[in-house]
Amino acid sequence: MTRCIACGMLMLKASDYSTGDMNMEYCCHCCRSDGTMMTYEERHAGFVDFIMRTQGFDEAGASLMADCLMRELPAWSRRDRQEDGLSDL
Ligand SMILES: [Zn+2]
User: Would you report the helix, strand and coil content of the chain in percent, each value rounded to 5?
Assistant: First the structure.
């Protein structure tokens, strides 16, 4: 049992994984049709859409919420660390 690194979903069966391959780190909702992982922007847009539909937030609120949710996920926190490492403080 694994959690998707991009959205946090539990992946229990092969069909939950990208391309049905249980060695994948991300789920079927976080890949494009060719099986590669979505970019931050693509996944963020998906989260905003989902939050607006299910929680009744407007786009600005949903966008903030998606930022917070995604910050907790391994795929994107790794991305932040890489960017932080390159910037001068
Ligand atoms: Zn996912």
Answer: 55, 10, 35
For residues 59 and 48, is the Cβ–Cβ distance under 8 A?
Answer: yes
Ligand 1 centroid, distance to 56 Cα (angstroms): 22
The four Cα atoms 5, 68, 61, 89 give a dihedral, to 10 degrees, of: -120
Alpha carbon 23 to chain centroid, angstroms: 17
**pLDDT (tens digit per residue) in 50-78:** 999 999 999 999 999 999 999 999 999 86
CA of 6 to the centre of ligand 1 (A): 5
Tell how far the Cα of 9 is from the centroid of ligand 1, in angstroms.
Answer: 6
CA angle, 16 then 22 then 24, to 5°:
90
